[in-house]
């Protein structure tokens, strides 16, 4: 149950996160309402994933959590840079969604393996 909820919230966060990514590609500032919604959905999804991963004997949810934790920290860094009005390094802005895709693939692999 928690694994499925984590997947749904993180998938919604990924969909909302395409807007700030698209703004970055167009070299425009991200709209903060999308950034806040994206981050809030991600925090809820990762919380559900923590609940499941800490009680599951299967290592895949824990690996997905660790990768999504790296993604989360990158997102916090991007958010902090945006709030300080500092330039956002392209590497972090590209690693963040790529790591999220890897984490989501592992998460959905764990969901489908159940």
List keywords for this structure.
114 residues; mainly alpha; 4 helices; 83% helix
| H-E order | HHHH
Strand content: under 5%
Oligomer: single chain
Number of helices: 4
Derived from helix and strand composition plus strand pairing, the structural class reads: mainly alpha
Shape: elongated
Distance linking N and C termini? 11 Å
Helix content range: over 70%
- Rounded to the nearest angstrom, the radius of gyration is 14 Å
Major pleated sheet: none
Number of domains: 1
Number of strands: 0
Give average pLDDT, whole number: 91
- State the low-pLDDT regions, or none: none
Description:
The protein has four helices and no strands. By secondary structure, it is mainly α.
Furnish the topology, listing elements before pairings:
Layout: H1 2-25, H2 32-53, H3 59-83, H4 90-113
Helix pairs in contact: 1-2, 1-4, 2-3, 3-4
């Amino acid at each position: 149950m928690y694994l499925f909820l984590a997947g749904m919230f993180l998938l919604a966060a990924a969909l909302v996160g395409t807007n700030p990514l698209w703004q970055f590609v167009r070299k425009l500032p991200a709209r903060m309402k999308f950034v806040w919604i994206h981050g809030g959905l991600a925090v809820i999804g990762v919380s559900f994933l923590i609940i499941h991963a800490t009680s599951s004997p299967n290592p895949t949810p824990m690996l997905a959590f660790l990768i999504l934790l790296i993604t989360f920290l990158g997102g916090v860094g991007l958010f902090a840079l945006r709030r300080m009005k500092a330039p956002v390094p392209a590497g972090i802005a590209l690693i963040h969604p790529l790591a999220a895709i890897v984490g989501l693939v592992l998460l959905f692999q764990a969901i489908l393996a159940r």
